[in-house]
Structure formats: C-alpha cells, structure tokens
Amino acid sequence: NAGVTQTPKFRVLKTGQSMTLLCAQDMNHEYMYWYRQDPGMGLRLIHYSVGEGTTAKGEVPDGYNVSRLKKQNFLLGLESAAPSQTSVYFCASTYSTIGSSRGYEQYFGPGTRLTVT
Amino acid sequence: GQQLNQSPQSMFIQEGEDVSMNCTSSSIFNTWLWYKQDPGEGPVLLIALYKAGELTSNGRLTAQFGITRKDSFLNISASIPSDVGIYFCAGQRPGTTDSWGKLQFGAGTQVVVTP
C-alpha cells in the first residue's frame, strides 16, 4: 500500500503559467481533498471531492480547478499561476461512510512545494 | 474559515521533559484529531478522539477530548529528539452533510527538542 502519493514534489512556475498537480490513493477512499499550507496559517481546504465525478469548493478555491475522473485520482489545476499561490500543497483522503466516525480520519500525501515567481 | 486556537505556537524543550499543548474553540466538536508533521513531509495521524471525556494513548502520546467538547489536549511524555516537528489539532464540527468529512485545523505547535 503506497497510501496517498503526490506528483511532482517540487515545481517552480513563472507568473501566468499553468500546471496540474496529481494525487493518487490506493486505499479505495471515496473522499479526497486538496489543501494548501502557508506559514502560521495551518491547512486550508481548497477543493474536495465526495466521489468519482464530483467536486466541491472549500475555503480558498479561487484560482484553482479540480477534477476527479477516476476514484483513485484527484487533480488540482492552476490555470494562470500567481505569486500568491506559492505554497505547499497537500492531498488527503478518507473513508466514505457518512456517520461513520472513522470517516473523519484524513490521510495525507507527502506534499508538493510550489514556487511562483 | 474558522480555525481552531492552538497553543503554544512553539516550544523549546530538553530531552526527557514532558510536553503539553492544547486546542480550543468557541464551538463544539464531535471529533478531535492530532497530527504530527515532520519537516518536508505530510501530516501523519497520531490519535483520534470521538467521545467527550475520552482519553487515548499512543505510546508516549496521550490525548484527551475535553468534556465541554470545545477543546482537546495532547501530552508527550519523556520527549526524545525524534519528537521534533509540528503538531496539529483538527476537529470535525457536528452539522449538515455539507460539513461532513471537512476538518478545521489549528495553526500548529512547533516542538524543538534539545539534547
């Protein structure tokens, strides 16, 4: 079991460039999440997905798009990168069953460090 | 979004000392989670708490779900150098299905252990 994996680990973009971050999980989890982590701010939810083909906005969705074409993959896209999007991005996943207490236990990937110049 | 109030922000301790940190909110939660993040890595789940008053241990770590449901505490006993890292609390608030599965996070406590 690889758990949650993310590619790439590091990336440098120029302002206005686009890129896609890939998250993959092999735990058959229904729910997947994208967070960004900035110093002193903890983790902030960008977008999430409650199942294949569905996505929803989180706390800080502006400037990002996501897709969940396959259950095991969750993609985060930046169409036109801005310096404010310099951050560390984490993907997470969790069990699906509504009402199941273990559904709150999110498992994180190793992160992608993105710098936008 | 609302963040949990986590304190202290940082701690410098000597090896062998005990460590305590806490997380508070003005709202009630029905789940509390504690994560540890090593430098350059993603957060790793340490302890999950599901009932008010619950006390759970994981090795030298002990966490408690506050009886008011508005706070949680994490203790590390007899710290060792590998305890260094950032510890995050996270909570799940009761509510609608829209809020289900979404966690709120504290800003983290940076722990530095000196020999």
Gist of the model:
The complex is a heterodimer of chains A (117) and B (115). Chain A has 117 residues and is an all-beta fold.
Word description of this protein:
The complex is a heterodimer of chains A (117) and B (115). With 117 residues, chain A is mainly beta. Chain A is 0% helix and 52% strand. Chain A has no helices and eleven strands. In chain A, strands 2, 4, 5, 6, 9, 10 and 11 form a seven-stranded mixed sheet that branches. In chain A, strands 1-3-8-7 form a four-stranded antiparallel sheet, with no helix packed on it. Chain A is globular and about 40 Å long. In chain A, 34% of the residues are buried. Chain B is mostly beta strands and 115 residues long. Helix content of chain B is 0%, strand content 50%. Chain B contains no helices and eleven strands. In chain B, strands 2, 4, 5, 9, 10 and 11 form a six-stranded mixed sheet that branches. Chain B is globular and about 45 Å long. The model of chain B has no long low-confidence stretch (mean pLDDT 91). The chains are: A mainly beta (117), B mainly beta (115). Chains A and B meet through β5, β9 and β10 of A and β4, β5 and β9 of B.
- Number of beta-strand segments of chain A: 11
- Report the end-to-end length of chain B measured between terminal Cα atoms: 38 Å
Q: Please identify the structural class of chain B as seen in this structure.
A: mainly beta
Oligomer: heterodimer
Percentage of residues in strands of chain A: over 45%
What's the helix count of chain A?
0
| pLDDT averaged residue by residue of chain B | 91
- Rg of chain A, nearest Å: 14 Å
Order of helices and strands of chain A: EEEEEEEEEEE
Gross geometry of chain A: globular
Helical content of chain B, roughly? under 10%
Low-pLDDT runs of 5+ residues of chain B are none
Output the helix-strand order of chain B.
EEEEEEEEEEE
Largest interface: A-B, 27 and 26 residues
Shape of chain B: globular
In whole angstroms, how far apart are the ends of chain A? 36 Å
Class of secondary structure makeup of chain A: mainly beta
Question: Unreliable stretches of chain A, pLDDT < 50, 5 or more residues?
Answer: none
Rg of chain B is 14 Å
**Percent helix range of chain A:** under 10%
The chain-level mean pLDDT of chain A equals: 91
